[in-house]
Write a structure and sequence with these properties.
seven-stranded mixed beta sheet; six-stranded antiparallel beta sheet
Length: 801
């Protein structure tokens, strides 16, 4: 059949099919799909109405906004059941409970921060001197805003009590239940203190300050503490209280709270408190959320906050060792994050309130929702966490189905390290593996010098020396060894020698010179670096690489780095920064102790930032991600140096190694270097008890005794601590190291030579604060801006996602 005849036949067949369709079928196919808002409304209606029918709450108002448009706004059920049933209305005013913490208290504090009147890292006692009592002098404003201050969840006020002063006094006189900065403990008391800080600094109580500076400029005309009497008919009542003996809640025999704050502490303080007491409507809160999404700009065009302030409030501000992720006031990822649902990513944020309120904001899809309910009316019910989650999940599924990670959301996801992810089973190929795959193409035709040691192995265990020696078209002419020598066993200076297998010279870069000399580099056209690093600033392999790059650049010798995994992963960064005037062989570049970069990435950074000018080529790895610790790579572990024998030791090493200069044996001369430390003058039981009370994340301290066969304290009986890692994801080695150093200085000042730890610590300000007695958590908080600046600097040189 001719081709044109086939085409005509096909068209005729389609025509016959179309006319055979019944009118009903044609009408069905022509119907437009339901609009997303209509579909979402049906889903939300079903979720909320089912919850009301199940007596999870008497009623609610739900508002959803997407891309600047309110797409769902509805009242459900009843506003009141006692003393008479009243239908819920859209203009109902609700007791916001803990939404007060963000809409009133956090907002007020951050305005004072903007104005330069409050500093986040200042001790709270700087503004409220009485707060310093009983060990609270190290608690900062940031600690309270992130619930990391170590305060009790609820102030321990003894009955009977009245007035705000009784609550303040109970907090001032109380002791901490955890060191500041160590643990997330959701605390009403912290926000009660923050509201008092607002009053002391601004001269206005938090209710008046927020009204003048936030609510009126935003047009939030029905948002107040102490709502006026004329609002009462529109206020959703909460619990029935003051019941006669034997009467049950909901019986109608007591007093129903209506316009009086539900929280008993806030009510006893007169209705104005930092943790509860604010009343508002869904429409007013929508104005607030719009302002947050607009970076601090009100719908009217008036600026309420600087964009940087909003970014600060709503991005992670908890320390890197905390598995809980909080902004300043705002919740991001915690046990209270039910309003995020299943699908909103961690870059979103919000908060909940005990009375049944919630709000959640997704800046990427420009979506927010507000759920206002009085689930405690007329009696207490279980928390409506499930309802909040189901609502959020439905909204995100409909309005943000095409979420794609942005730079900002990725940074937020990564700020918690690997604590949220299962370990991958990768099959990482290092630079030498990739070079073999490429049949050594980059090096063919060149006379090559190789800087390596016993860690220069491919996945099959073949040494890089052998591979290059036997490679077709590659002429290996010289070997160079770092600290510990080519075999990785030396603990002192290393002499140059000859490789017995190849007859090549092995030039030591940890002997009479630490740089390759003119003589060493004679005849070398390409210098190759292949050594497993430890991921730590003061590990000397990094400086050896940098010095060799400098010498290669002077002589126009191409420099190749065969990249390898950072065994500590590529995300976590731990300070302090190295002072710029302390650059040396154990600190080549001003960067944090734990930098989260591979040697290939470091080479790129060194070359550009120090203007080395090397002809640098990095043979990148395959199948390695920044979140991968070494155990995720599938690569065999080879101890990079004699004492760095295990992955646990590698993780503990950055914080433990700084102690040795102060006169502490860190496990050298034992079976478990860097997993143990001690000295003859330490009392192990008392030291372990003290350190365990510090709640150092990810590690426990077990008293022990040992006799090292290496200095310091060789052959002497030592008492000390065995370090037990309890959570690799939250362990912050430098926090641990500083906590130990602070404890040794506090408990054994005549023996611990604290000034000498400067050798590896490398930061004079940190050392002075440590000696002064500042909490290590606070010291590292202060270093956060420097660490963030380094994070931005290093971003230009990263090779892996």
């Amino acid at each position: 059949m001719p081709r044109h005849t086939v085409k005509l036949f096909g068209l005729f067949s389609i025509f016959l099919f179309l006319i055979s369709i019944s009118p009903a079928q044609a009408q069905t196919k022509a119907q437009p799909k339901p609009k997303p808002a209509a579909t979402l409304a049906k889903t939300l209606d079903a979720i909320v109405e089912k919850a009301i029918a199940a007596d999870e709450l008497p009623g609610a108002v739900l508002l959803v906004s997407h891309k600047g448009q309110i797409i769902h706004r509805k009242a459900y059920g009843n506003r009141a059941l006692l003393p008479a049933r009243e239908a819920m209305t859209l203009d109902t005013i609700f007791d916001l409970a803990s939404l007060t913490k963000i809409v009133a208290t956090t907002s007020s504090v951050m305005l004072l921060v903007e104005q330069g009147k409050v500093r986040l890292n200042d001790p709270v006692a700087h503004y409220l001197p009485d707060f310093a009592a009983n060990g609270k002098e190290q608690v900062t404003v940031r600690h309270l805003l992130t619930h990391m201050g170590g305060l009790r969840p609820v102030p321990p006020v003894k009955d009977p009590w009245t007035g705000a002063e009784a609550v303040f006094k109970s907090i001032y006189e109380d002791t901490l239940i955890a060191p500041p900065g160590a643990r997330f403990i959701y605390s009403d008391g912290g926000f009660i203190i923050l509201a008092e800080l607002v009053r002391r600094v601004s001269g206005l109580p938090v209710n008046e300050f927020a009204l003048e500076n936030i609510y009126r400029p935003l047009g939030m005309s029905h948002t107040r503490f102490l709502p006026p009497a004329e609002w009462k008919p529109r206020i959703a009542p909460t619990e029935e209280i003051d019941l006669p003996d034997g009467a049950k809640a909901g019986s109608g025999k007591g007093r129903v709270l209506r316009g009086d704050v539900h929280d008993p502490r806030a009510r006893g303080m007169g209705g104005v408190a930092g943790h509860a007491g604010l009343f508002s409507t869904a429409d007013d809160l929508a104005n607030y959320c719009r302002m947050i999404l607009a970076g601090g700009l009100a719908p009217s065009g008036k600026r309420i906050f600087a964009a940087a302030t909003v970014q600060k409030m709503t991005s992670p501000q908890t320390p890197p060792w905390s598995p809980t992720l909080r902004g300043l006031g705002w919740d991001i990822d915690s046990v209270y994050s039910a309003p995020r649902g299943e699908f909103f990513p961690r870059g979103t944020f919000g908060h909940t309130g005990f009375t049944g309120t919630a709000m959640w904001i997704d800046p990427q899809s420009r979506t927010f929702y507000i759920l206002l309910a009085n689930s405690v009316h007329p009696y207490g019910r279980p928390a409506i966490s499930s309802l909040r989650s189901r609502i959020a999940t439905a909204i995100a599924a409909q309005l943000a189905p095409a979420f794609r990670p942005t730079a900002a959301s990725t940074a937020i996801e990564r700020s918690v390290g690997s604590s949220h992810d299962a370990v991958r089973n990768a099959q990482t190929k290092t630079g030498i593996d990739v070079l073999v795959e490429e049949n050594f193409a980059p090096l063919r035709g060149k006379h090559v010098g190789l800087i390596t040691n016993h860690t220069g192995l491919d996945r099959s265990g073949r040494s890089t020396i052998d591979l290059l020696w036997k490679a077709d078209g590659v002429k290996l002419v010289a070997l160079f060894s770092p600290e510990h020598g080519i075999a990785g066993r030396a603990d002192d200076k290393v002499a140059s020698t000859t490789d017995t297998a190849t007859g090549l010279p092995i030039f030591s870069l940890y002997g009479d010179t630490r740089r390759p000399t003119e003589e060493m580099l004679r005849g070398v056209e390409a210098l190759v670096f292949d050594i497993q690093d430890a991921g730590v600033r003061f590990y000397t392999y990094e400086t050896t690489m940098a010095y060799a790059m400098e010498e290669a650049a002077k002589r126009k010798i191409a420099f190749y780095v065969l990249d390898r995994p950072n065994p500590l992963g590529g995300e976590a960064i731990e300070g302090p920064m190295l002072d710029k005037d302390r650059l040396n062989f154990v600190g080549y570049f001003p960067m944090p102790v734990r930098h989260g970069m591979t040697v290939g990435e470091l080479a790129r950074l060194f070359n550009e930032e120090n203007k080395i000018g090397a002809d640098l080529h990095v043979v990148a790895m395959k199948d390695w991600r920044r979140r991968d610790l070494f155990e995720a790579t599938g690569q065999p572990w080879t101890a990079p140096s004699p004492n760095l024998r295990s992955l646990d030791a590698a993780l503990l090493y950055p914080g433990i190694e700084i102690l040795q200069s102060g006169g502490v044996n860190v496990g050298r001369g034992t079976e478990t270097p860097f997993e143990i430390f001690g000295a003859p003058w330490i009392k192990s039981v008392e030291l372990a008890a003290y350190l365990n009370r510090r709640f150092v994340p990810g590690v426990r301290f077990v008293p022990t005794r040992f006799m090292p066969t290496a200095s310091p304290h060789k052959g002497l009986a030592c008492e000390g601590i065995a370090l037990v890692i309890t959570d690799r994801a939250t362990l912050n080695s430098m926090l641990m190291g500083l906590e130990i150093a602070a404890a040794l200085w506090k408990m054994y000042p005549e023996n611990f030579q604290v000034d000498k730890i400067m050798t590896l610590l490398g930061n004079a300000a940190v050392l002075e604060r440590l000696k002064k007695g500042d909490a290590p958590t606070r010291i590292l908080d202060e270093a956060a801006d420097e660490i963030e600046a380094f994070r931005k600097l290093r971003a230009k040189y990263l090779l892996y996602q």
